Amino acid sequence: MSVTAAHTRQERPTRIPELDALRGFALAGILLVNALMMAGPHALGVVDDLTASVSDRIVEGLVQTFAVGKFYLLFSFLFGYSFTLQLTSAASDGARAVPRHLRRTLGLLVLGILHAVLLYVGDILVTYALFGLVLIAARNCSPGAALRAARIVYGCAAVPLLLLGTFSLLMPDAETAAADAELAASFPALIAGYRGDAASVVAANIGQLPDALLSALVMGGFVLPAFLVGLHCGKLRLLADTGRHRARMRRICLLGTATGLPGSVFMALAVSGPLGPRWALFGQLVGMVTAPALTAAYVCGMLLFLDTARGARVTALLAPAGRMALTNYLSQSLVMALVFTAYGFALYDRLGPGDVVLGALVLYAVQLAVSARLMARHRYGPVEWFLRAVTLAGLPRGGDRRDAAV
To answer: In whole angstroms, what is the distance from residue 102 CA to residue 96 CA?
Structure first.
């Protein structure tokens, strides 16, 4: 019997507050990374900034260590998990799951393209939409098959990247310096574009799309395994009763930290620290390959914490933002575009990392407060309502708050 058929005998799933809290937590990490990326061309050590202060490098190093590469994977895991809840929701409504999810995918794709062209070229929604098609194809696979596929895809992505990173260490210093100089030579035009006018901002984003697509393809090698791990966990409903899995989650948290944190620290030392340009690419790739381990530690550590009395208060704080995570994600880009580009204050390449991170934390606090007010009165955030309407090919019904992140 197919898994989809099994879903038809299940009731519509209720929302899991801890999943929403994880989304709310992930929004903070996404914001810290994206804010630095949108603030200027030297962001996060893309090319060494010789004018950066020690405090700037420390701030970037901390973001490199604890945020870069981790939180988009956390969202990817939750995307895969929520997919199983959406299957159950469709079955309980007597609807055909595949057309629903294809419409949802199309909606994400359109939002992602508009986001990348108008606001932030580092959009993740297009990647989610395209690789989300694999989830539709894999909807009837067993939990074990999903986990095995995740391991295979991860291995196929990680091994070539590590080989590439190792090869980069063999390059002469002169070649590394020449490549960095060539990239830095493009920065004045980029700065002028983002400080010019609305048309030049869009042109600057479009000009970076080829590199962004290549980056999205590389990231997809890790997004897809996270999707599949989420699919595995969702099919087993592992997060519906985390109390039964506390010992296992502790082990994953410890092992993930022991594996992922050293890789992230090495990335920070290589990219934003003292190791120098020769190690930068290798450090980035090591950080990318080990990031899933630290993401797993974040997931399990947060779930263990949220299952406590103090954690329940944190859940109440974070969950409203997580319920409207898509609205918050896009509004983060909108606010930062107003701050850094000619849409507003045109502060591109004018603020240091410390100021950018402080501003991002203030924005996150505002989002938590606004989300709490909106979710106390409404069932969906604005963009969630739009995507739900596209998914259903009709207006969402009001009044029923049982939906499970659909």
So the answer is: 11
Pair 364, 33: CB distance under 8 Å: no
Instruction: Give the residue from 336, 332, 357 showing the smallest Cα distance to 345.
Output: 336
pLDDT tens sequence across 101-151: 999 999 999 999 999 999 999 999 999 999 999 999 999 999 999 999 999
- 23, 325 in Cβ contact below 8 A? yes
pTM tops 0.85: yes
Name the maximum alpha-carbon separation found in the chain.
65
| DSSP labels, 56-123 | HHHHHHHHHHHTTTTHHHHHHHHHHHHHHHHHHHHHHTT--HHHHHHHHHHHHHHHHHHHHHHT-TT-
Are 327 and 384 a contacting pair, CB within 8 Å? yes
Q: Using alpha carbons, list the distances in angstroms from residue 8 to 3, 81, 88, 91, 135.
A: 9, 18, 7, 5, 18
Q: 223, 72 in Cβ contact below 8 A?
A: yes
CA 58 from centre of chain: 23
